[in-house]
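Exercise 7. Given the encoded structure of a 482-residue chain, write a plausible sequence.
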C-alpha cells in the first residue's frame, strides 16, 4: 500500500445532519481520524450539509471514492445524493451509519457497499483495498467482515459480522481538523441559560438495557457496554479545553450514569487537572441509577443538565418498554434528587405505543403535570418505529413498514399518522389528546429562551445578527415542535 501523498486516492465523507442538530459528525470524524492514525491516510474531506451545499462540495473536491453516513430519516436524501454522485463522477459510493447497519437488506443499488456496525476497522480495510487496486471486486469484498454488497446475480450479500473493538482506548481521540471550526463558535446552551463554546465526548459505546423502542443494543451489541478509561477521557477533555476553549461539554453516551466508580475517578482526575473550572456539562441518565450519591458525583463533574427517557406516565406501559427497574414514581424521584443537587432535568416521553390505551395516555398527561411542577423540562413525541428493536418488528408485522418504504415518512412529530397506535384506538381522539398534552409543555420553550436572553442579551443579539436567517428558522422550528 502506498504511503500518503499526492497520488493517494481522495475520499469524500458526507454528512446529512439536520440544521437543528449542529454538532460535529462524530461517526465520520472517527473514520477520518482512524484512517490517518492507523494507516497514514490523510486525503479525507468531510462535506458537511450544515455549512455547504453537498453537491457543490463534492464537485469542488472531485473525489475518487465517496462515503455517506445516514440515519433512517436521512436515507432517502442519502440515496438521492448517491445517485447524483455516481452519475457525475462514476465512482463507488459507500453507505454507513445506523440505518444500513440495522437494516442491511434495505441497501439500494445506488450504493456499492454498506458498512454494518462499528465502522473503523471495516472502513480501514476498504480504503486499503481501494488504495491498492483502485476497484472493489467481489472476491476481495467477501474477505472483509461487516459489509453488504451486490453479488453476481444482483442480490445483496452480507459478510460475517465484524468483531467489536474490545479496548476503546485503541481508538484514537477525534482529530477535529476534519470538522468545520464553526462548530466551536459560542451557541446558546438551552437549560444552562448561557452562551458557550461546546465540546463533545463519547466515553462509552453500548448499553446493558434492552428497551423495546431502542436500537442501541442491536447496533453496539446486545447487553454489551465498553468504556474508555478515565485517563483517556480526561486527556481528551484537556485537549478540547486547550485547543477550542470549550465552556460546556456534552457527554454523548447513551447512559453516562451506569458505572459510578468510573465517574468518581473521572471527577477525581478532572479536579486534579482543574479541568472543570469554567466548564459546565450535560449527560444522559436512567432514573433508577440516580440517587443522592450519584447526584453528588454529578455535582463534582459540574453536570448542569441530566437527560432522561421517562417515556410514559403509565406504570404498565413504562415497564413494558423499559423493564421492572423503572416506574413513574422512580422517574419523579430522579427529578427531585437532581433538583436537590441543582441539576436541571430534561425528559422525553411518547404516546402511541403498541398496547397503550387512551387511559394510559391520560396517565402520561398527569405525570407531565407533576414533573413540570417539580421543575423538569419535557419533550413529547409520537412513538415511531425505526430499524432495530421491537417497535420496528411490530410495525413490520402490521404491514406499516418494510425495507422498500419511503423512510422519510417516519416522523416523531406526526400525531395524525401514528404507525404504532393500536387499531382499536380512534386516531382523532389520539391526536386530540396528544396535542392537548403538548400544550402543557409549550411555555417551557419560551422560558428556556427567556433565561438565555436575561443572562446574556448582548451576546444573543450579536449571534443572531451574524446569521439572522439560520437563527430565525431554527427558533421558529424549535418553538413549533412539541
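Solution.
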Amino acid at each position: 500500500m502506498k504511503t500518503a501523498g499526492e497520488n493517494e486516492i481522495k475520499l469524500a465523507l458526507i454528512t446529512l445532519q439536520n440544521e437543528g442538530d449542529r454538532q460535529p459528525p462524530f461517526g465520520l470524524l472517527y473514520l477520518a481520524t482512524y484512517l490517518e492514525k492507523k494507516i497514514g491516510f490523510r486525503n479525507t474531506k468531510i462535506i458537511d450539509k450544515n455549512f455547504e451545499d453537498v453537491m457543490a462540495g463534492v464537485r469542488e473536491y472531485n473525489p475518487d471514492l465517496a462515503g455517506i453516513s445516514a440515519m433512517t430519516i436521512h436515507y432517502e436524501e442519502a440515496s438521492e445524493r448517491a445517485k447524483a454522485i455516481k452519475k457525475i463522477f462514476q465512482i463507488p459510493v459507500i453507505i454507513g451509519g445506523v440505518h444500513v447497519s440495522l437494516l442491511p437488506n434495505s441497501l439500494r443499488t445506488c450504493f456499492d457497499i454498506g458498512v454494518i456496525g462499528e465502522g473503523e476497522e471495516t472502513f480501514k480495510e476498504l480504503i486499503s483495498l481501494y488504495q491498492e487496486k483502485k476497484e472493489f471486486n467481489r472476491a476481495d469484498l467477501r474477505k472483509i467482515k461487516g459489509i453488504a454488497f451486490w453479488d453476481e446475480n444482483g442480490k445483496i450479500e452480507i459478510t460475517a459480522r465484524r468483531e467489536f473493538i474490545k479496548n476503546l482506548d485503541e481508538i484514537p481521540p477525534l482529530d477535529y481538523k476534519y470538522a468545520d471550526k464553526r462548530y466551536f463558535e459560542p451557541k446558546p446552551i438551552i437549560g444552562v441559560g448561557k452562551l458557550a463554546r461546546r465540546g463533545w465526548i463519547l466515553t462509552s459505546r453500548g448499553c446493558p438495557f434492552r428497551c423495546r423502542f431502542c436500537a442501541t443494543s442491536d447496533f453496539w451489541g446486545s447487553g454489551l457496554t465498553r468504556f474508555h478509561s478515565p485517563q483517556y477521557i480526561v486527556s481528551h477533555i484537556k485537549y478540547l479545553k486547550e485547543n477550542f476553549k470549550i465552556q460546556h461539554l456534552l457527554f454523548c453516551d447513551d447512559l453516562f450514569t451506569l458505572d459510578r466508580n468510573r465517574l468518581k475517578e473521572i471527577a477525581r482526575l478532572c479536579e486534579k487537572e482543574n479541568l472543570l473550572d469554567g466548564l459546565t456539562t450535560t449527560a444522559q441518565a436512567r432514573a433508577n441509577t440516580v440517587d443522592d450519591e450519584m447526584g453528588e458525583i454529578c455535582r463534582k463533574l459540574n453536570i448542569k443538565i441530566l437527560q432522561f427517557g421517562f417515556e410514559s406516565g403509565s406504570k404498565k406501559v413504562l415497564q413494558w418498554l423499559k423493564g421492572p427497574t423503572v416506574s413513574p414514581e422512580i422517574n419523579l424521584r430522579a427529578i427531585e434528587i437532581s433538583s436537590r443537587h441543582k441539576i436541571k432535568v430534561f425528559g422525553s416521553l411518547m404516546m402511541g405505543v403498541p398496547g397503550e390505551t387512551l387511559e394510559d395516555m391520560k396517565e402520561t398527561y398527569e405525570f407531565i403535570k407533576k414533573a413540570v411542577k417539580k421543575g423538569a423540562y419535557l419533550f413529547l413525541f409520537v412513538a415511531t418505529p425505526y430499524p432495530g428493536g421491537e417497535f420496528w418488528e411490530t410495525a413490520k408485522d402490521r404491514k406499516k413498514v418494510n425495507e422498500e418504504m419511503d423512510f422519510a415518512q417516519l416522523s416523531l412529530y406526526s400525531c395524525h399518522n401514528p404507525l404504532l397506535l393500536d387499531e382499536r384506538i380512534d386516531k382523532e381522539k389520539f391526536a386530540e389528546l396528544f396535542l392537548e398534552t403538548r400544550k402543557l409543555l409549550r411555555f417551557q420553550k419560551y422560558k428556556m429562551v427567556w433565561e438565555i436572553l436575561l443572562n446574556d442579551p448582548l451576546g444573543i443579539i450579536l449571534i443572531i445578527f451574524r446569521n439572522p436567517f439560520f437563527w430565525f428558522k431554527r427558533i421558529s422550528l424549535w418553538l413549533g415542535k412539541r
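Remark. Residues 11-158 form a domain with the Rossmann fold fold (CATH 3.40.50.280). Students should compare their own answers with the one above.
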